[in-house]
Amino acid sequence: MENSNISLYKKDRNIIILSPFIIILINIIVALSFGKLIGKWAFIPVILIEWCIFSFLIFRYGGINSVKNWLKKPQGGIGWTILALSTGLICLPIFIFNKHLLTVWTIWLPWIALAVINPWLEEFYWRGLLSDYTNNWNKWLSIFYTSVVFSANHAVFGLNSNMLRGPELVTSTLIMGIIWAIVYKKTGSLRWAIFAHFMVDFLSLSAPAFLDLLNMGRR
Predict the structure, then answer these.
(1) Cβ distance 23 to 46 under 8 Å?
(2) CAAX prenyl protease 2/Lysostaphin resistance protein A-like domain location, by residue (predicted)?
């Protein structure tokens, strides 16, 4: 019975470790397919399908107990909190110079929905689930792996958005992924990573960025 449980865990671990590549492949297919139909608005079906996959993996291979553990009170000093939140404030200039784009409900509704929902699912999956299933790896290898696939996944949005195409997005998401992964390992909690991720999605005006509106609206 014990050997059976060990084999089952190894199978689950392999599934989770390989799951980023499946997610990225699905996102590419969805982005290209819907890009031909609705253009830059293809980010909506990409994200909705991605959320469904994240939710399934989180609750199938993590479960409620994992979610509770990810949301427990952070340990460590205040420096880790400051480090996590500093990544969110980087996007503040984008919000200041482009907030006038949020006057139409078709823009501000997906922007708000993304900022409220996305940080939870992304952090539970990329930082929580992936980090937990690679906790037997070298610490820095685990951090680097989870951050690289996190960054690569965001590069998919460049298929339909000129603004999100290029090394800037890949580099920034890679750095954020590394910082948030370190904070998770040091504090044992995803609370501050989730809040920092919320700040990034909120202040970077994600929906207008997907639609290539930021440069057009910048004054």
Answers:
(1) no
(2) 105-203
The residue ranges of every structural domain in the chain are: 2-217
Contact of 144 with 78, CB cutoff 8 Å: no
The phi and psi torsions of 195 (rounded to 5 degrees) equal: -65, -40
pTM over 0.70: yes
Average pLDDT on 187-213 reads 96
Q: What value does the mean pLDDT take over residues 63-89? A: 93
What is the chain's length?
219
Helix-helix angle 167-187:139-155, to 10 degrees: 140
Single-letter residue type at 189:
S
Query: Rounded to an integer, what distance in angstroms lies between the CA atom of residue 67 and that of residue 87?
Result: 23
For residue 197, give both structure tokens.
């991720």
Which string of b and e fits 52-73 if b means at least 16 CB within 10 Å?
ebbeebbeebbeeebbeebeee
- SS3 label, residue 202: helix
Q: In this structure, are residues 122 and 54 in contact, taking their beta carbons and an 8 Å threshold? A: yes
